[in-house]
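--- STAGE predict ---
source: upstream dedup step, 1 unique chain passed
mode: sequence only
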Amino acid sequence: MQVPLAFVFVTLLITPTLADPRDTDVVRVGPWAITTTYKGDKFDNCTMSRSGESVGSMFVRNQDGLMLRLDSPTWKLERGEVYSVRLVAGSQSVEAKALAETKDVTVALADRSFDGRLRTANVLEVRGDGATLRVPLDGSAAAFERLEACFNKNERTSAETNPFVAPSKKP
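--- STAGE serialize ---
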């Protein structure tokens, strides 16, 4: 059964990220929580999340770039369904695809100039099929900076400990 996008974006709730026990600290930057995620012993990604009364969101920074994840336990989506959405941050907008799982949607944020605009906008609007979801971005500039620092630190550490990656030369 296909659920109209208007129904999908009615309520959102963020699902907590399962972090490796060695990195249970959460760094708070304004309303945002920055965490590091591992799969086994390997660094996987850094996340930046917040939740509010009706909207929860998570930005995920991994090797592939930046993604936005929205989820709700009340959703009943068909896994693999793709919704067309327009993302709007300030005066800039881009077309994107939201890939559905049973309880969440993920949107790849592939436009670097748009990603930069997220840092200065107050709100990210996700527009689709008659509904608009508003994701508050207040305090996001510092949080996105911390998200990138988290990713770069962990990515560099992973490369330094991987015997198949050449170590960086130090003068």
